[in-house]
Amino acid sequence: MRNVVVVGYGMAGARLADEIRRRDPGADRVAVTVLGDEDHPAYNRVLLSSVVAGSLTADAVRLHDADWAARRRVDLRLGEPVSKVDRTRRVVHVGDGEVPYDALVLATGARSWVPPTEGLLDGDGDGAMAPGVVAFRSLDDCALIVEKASPGTPVAVIGGGLLGLEAARGLAGRGCLVTVVHPVGHLMERQLDPGAGRVLARTLEGLGIEFRLGALAGRYVPGEGLELVDGTSVPADLVVVSAGVRAETALAEQAGLEVDRGVLVDDALRTSDPRVHAIGDCAQHVGTVSGLVQPAWEQAAVLADRLTGAAPAARYAGTTVVTRLKARDVDLAALGDVHVDVDCPDAEVLCFQDPARGRYAKLVLRDDRVAGAIVLGAPDAAAAITQLYDRGLAAPTDRLALLLGRALPTAGGGEASPADLPASALVCRCNTVSKGQLVGAWRAGATTVSALAEVTRAGTGCGGCRDAVCGIVDWLAASQPQPA
Questions:
Q1: Cα 265 to the chain's mean position, in Å?
Q2: Whole-prediction pTM value?
Q3: How far is CA 192 from the centre of its chain?
Q4: Do residue 411 and residue 358 come from a single domain?
Q5: Locate the BFD-like [2Fe-2S]-binding domain: which residues (predicted)?
Q6: Which residues neighbour 277 within 8 Å (Cβ) at sequence distance 6 or greater?
Q7: Closest-CA residue to 327 (of 187, 478, 452, 434)
Q8: 30-43 burial string, b = 16+ CB within 10 Å, else e?
Q9: How far is CA 5 from CA 49, 57, 99, 173, in A?
């Protein structure tokens, strides 16, 4: 039997263990040991903003229950960080003991990056946050934030990226007085152009969030707030830091593996040592460090194929991702190459703006195919454009109708409903679940949204596909007989 040791029990490590057991349910070929440095079961980090908002409990975002390891024949060890990897002897050091491996998988994730702002750290040199400052990264961080975030509390959020805005929206929903401090002139600059960033800021301002854009925090004074470099200040009894993450590569570096911005891996997800693999946020594949769940889970499936021998030739070819802002009352999707000017000679670029109603749409086409898009406040358009992007279909000739969500993709054009979508249409991107898989699971007896989630995992990632899954369930229930 082959010993596979997984270092990290986050979303990537937990999914890999699940995928291995799907291929080897009796544990006949592969023994799996998972080493997690946190004390509680794996959870869905993507949904932490919902925990901050109070719309989900900590238990609701757990990926595994307390009996998961025993049922799945996984040796799970919680609260046991790995201190060293000995590649010569093929063992990892955990506490006072050693765990041998035939194949080692690093799924160590990423850590919050704390900007060098005076006062954010406690000053003891151990990297701990100062009183009143919390990094937004883990379930424990959420508990600290919720403990301090009573209604009327002034809160400063450092970082106007995806996670920072999700945290800000959750805190505003709790009645906190939230100000987002962001060093760039518009929000989510990695995924949005300036026009979309401005409309998003206006939308969020209408939900009670204030912004200080193009501003740097110079010093945090407990009990007072943030002093900005421009001489102004932001009152804050709580500071939430969400200024980005860095791949956790310390263990890989100690082991002498090749590291850049992440642990370097090839298409087989092997590091510079072919017996050591890396997946998820700590891995760097083809020059890109992942920061979303979909690539991590696709990598887990590929690696499980290889480690169990189910598909030894499996390779990871990269992931086309769609970024969604998971914030109540805001519908935003961004995909592909969005930083293209309207006058770009090799692309067709269309843009629609309706700031007063919180709507913005930008579409980038090359050879009549979607190369990039930003869609804010128009969920029908976002769904249609995402389907075109996923399936590589030609965009309809009525571009304006597409931007307004009035031209949904079907095999022959025209209006689309769940019935019109082909079986191959991707419904849940995080888990690569197609309409055909959902229909098959429904016909096999999974006739509710929760049952479909259990069987196919659809909706258990970012949650952005839940409305689509509900629509398919409603359509099936109305149009087809119940399974016997």
A1: 20
A2: 0.88
A3: 17
A4: yes
A5: 426-473
A6: 103, 104, 105, 106, 265, 268, 269, 270, 271, 303
A7: 187
A8: bbbbbbbbbebbbb
A9: 31, 30, 8, 41
**DSSP symbols for 309-378:** TS-TT--------EEEEEETTEEEEEEE-----TT-TTSEEEEEEEGGGTEEEEEEEETTEEEEEEEES-
* Residues recorded for the chain: 484
Backbone angles phi, psi at 349, to 5 degrees: -120, 125
| Full domain range(s) for residue 225 | 133-243
Q: Tell which of 198, 225, 243 closes a domain.
A: 243
The phi and psi torsions of 333 (rounded to 5 degrees) equal -135, 140
Taking Cα atoms as reference points, which of 59, 74, 9, 70 lies closest to residue 39? 9
**pLDDT mean for each 10 residues of the chain (484 residues):** 96 96 95 94 90 89 92 95 96 94 97 93 82 93 93 96 94 95 96 96 96 96 92 96 94 97 96 98 83 89 97 93 86 92 90 93 95 93 88 89 73 53 75 82 86 81 75 82 52
d(CA 392, CA 363): 14
Enter the tokens of residue 340.
């293209």
